[in-house]
Design goal:
The protein is α/β, with parallel strands linked by helices and 371 residues long. It folds into two domains: 179 residues, Rossmann fold; 169 residues, Rossmann fold (3-Layer(aba) Sandwich). The chain has 13 helices and 15 strands. An eight-stranded mixed sheet has the order 3-2-1-4-5-6-14-15, with helices on both faces. Strands 9-8-7-10-11-13-12 form a seven-stranded mixed sheet, sandwiched between helices. Strand 14 and strand 15 form a beta hairpin. Helix 6 runs parallel beside helix 7 and helix 10 packs across helix 11.
């Protein structure tokens, strides 16, 4: 199969969808791998490493896309990339379509087969291709929040761990999944006072047992969120509904109850964000202020630690890439119903119900397409 790895063009996105190690594995299986020149440099993988692995380098971005059967990316395709997609091609990347109607309709119009990392499941009900980046984003969220609390960044001038004689800062994490646990773990490590809110009692029990009561676990209700809003110096939004738009849990009116200079970090921004005042930002301009509250809403947080993120992501994606290359998308998805859950768009039709629901469109059962 002809496999293409274009260079990411989203603002400050340095990750790459395939490492030289992955290229070597695919070439050894008889596939042709074309890598756009410079695609791996931001993550520390020079062109020479891809050449040594047997990949073909291509400087012309149009040629990279037009000659491919399978296109591997990290982030959702930008407008100029959507325009390059054609029927018969398979795109495998993060999509997060429920928050992006224009992108969704663009992919439908392309006629391509689009498989999303973030909706592939596993036998335990997890999201194995989202989890690595959720881990990175959760850990980065506390770094970003702590920095944003500095007075020079517009924050209240609070040091999260405090100092002897001065109480530590208070961190609330809304959502106790992979992002939330990793954020809470980092905040605990800094010495902050940490509260995790979630609607799953079993999940709260797991966190309470795992961290031996060092973090507070609270069942998430409107009252509990109101209290977190009033008391916290840093709130991290870590709510995920797989494939669907994130719920808006903190409204603009609630910002008036927050401490001036406190910080909101919205890790759910890829899915539209879980704060009403959230809007996607970039690493170039990561924060903005609404009603005295600092918002950090970078939509590709892991891109800032591209080397670590690329290795973590491609460790998870490579087995799926090999299945697509060896079998083609239909057989690969037919053989693995968990992989089939990743199919979001095919031949102009939406195949993921939550995406269709977000825009009032019809969806097709992917099972009918992969038999």
């Amino acid at each position: 199969m002809k496999i293409a790895v274009p260079k990411e063009i989203k603002n400050h996105e340095y990750r790459v969808a395939l490492t030289p190690t992955g290229a070597r594995e695919l070439v050894a299986r008889g596939h042709q791998v074309t890598v756009q020149g410079g695609a791996g440099e931001g993550a520390g993988f020079p062109d020479s490493d891809y050449e040594a692995a047997g990949a073909r380098l291509e400087a012309d971005v149009s040629a990279v896309w037009s000659d491919a059967e399978l296109i591997l990316k990290v982030k959702e395709p930008q407008a100029e990339e959507v325009a390059r997609l054609t029927a018969g091609q398979t795109l495998f990347t993060y999509l997060h379509l429920a928050a992006e109607e224009t992108l969704t309709r663009g992919l439908m119009a392309s006629g391509a087969t689009c498989i999303a990392y973030e909706t592939v499941t596993d036998r335990q009900g997890g999201l194995p291709l989202l989890a690595p980046m959720s881990t990175v984003a959760g850990r980065m969220a506390v770094q970003a929040g702590a920095h944003s609390l500095e007075k020079a960044q517009g924050g209240a001038g609070v040091l999260l761990p405090g100092v002897p004689g001065v109480a530590p800062g208070k961190v609330a994490v809304i959502g106790g999944g992979v992002v939330g646990e990793n954020a809470a773990r980092m905040a605990l490590g800094l010495g902050a006072e940490v509260t995790v809110l979630d609607k799953s009692i079993p999940r709260l029990e797991t966190l309470d047992d795992r961290y031996q009561g060092r973090m507070k676990t609270v069942f998430s209700t409107a009252d509990a969120i109101d209290e977190a809003v009033r008391e916290s110096d840093l709130i991290i939004g870590a709510v995920l509904i797989p494939g669907a738009a994130a719920p808006k849990l903190i409204t603009r009116a609630m910002l008036a109850d927050m401490k001036p200079g406190s910080v909101l970090v919205d890790v759910a921004i890829d899915q539209g964000g879980c704060f009403e005042t959230s809007r996607a930002t970039t690493h170039a301009e990561p924060t903005y202020v609404v009603d005295g509250i600092v918002h950090y809403c970078v939509a590709n947080m892991p891109g800032a630690v591209a080397r670590t993120s690329t290795q973590a992501l491609t460790n998870a994606t490579l087995p799926f890439v090999m299945a697509l290359a060896d079998k083609g998308w239909q057989q690969a998805l037919a053989d693995d119903p968990h992989f089939a859950a990743g199919l979001n768009v095919h031949d102009g039709r939406i195949t993921y119900a939550a995406v269709a629901e977000a825009f009032g469109l019809e969806s097709v059962d992917p099972a009918t397409l992969v038999k």
